[in-house]
């Protein structure tokens, strides 16, 4: 599931369009495992699922929820 619209946020209140620093304030420092198109992508892990926060110019451009079986 992917959200790029600021109306669709995580239950904790992280939303596309907000400053990435605010996401870090909500979730803490992200585990940075890769970059996509030169932008750092951080993951918040838990129970086989994670949130991926793509960012552009210091703002969240998309939030993706992914799970592994």
Mind explaining what this structure looks like?
This protein is mostly beta strands and 69 residues long. The chain has one domain. The chain is built from one helix and five strands, in the order βαββββ. It has one helix spanning 20-27; strands at 2-3, 31-36, 39-46, 49-56, 59-67. Strands 1-5-4-3-2 form a five-stranded antiparallel sheet, with helices on one face. A hairpin with a 2-residue loop joins strand 4 (49-56) and strand 5. The protein is globular, with a radius of gyration of 11 Å. The two termini are 15 Å apart.
In sequence order, what are the helices and strands, one letter per element?
A: EHEEEE
The total count of helices amounts to 1
**From the helix content, strand content and strand pairing, which structural class follows?**
mainly beta
Biggest beta-sheet profile: 5 strands, antiparallel
The shape is: globular
User: Tally of extended strands?
Assistant: 5
Identify low-pLDDT runs: none
* Proportion in β-strands: over 45%
In round numbers, the mean pLDDT is 82
Trace the largest sheet across and list its strands.
1-5-4-3-2
């Amino acid at each position: 599931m992917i959200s790029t619209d600021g109306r669709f946020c995580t239950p904790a209140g992280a939303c596309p369009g907000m400053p990435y620093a605010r996401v870090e304030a909500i979730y803490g420092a992200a585990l940075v495992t890769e970059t996509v198109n030169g932008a750092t992508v951080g993951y918040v892990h838990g129970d086989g699922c994670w949130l991926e926060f793509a960012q552009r110019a210091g703002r969240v451009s998309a939030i993706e929820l992914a799970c592994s079986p």
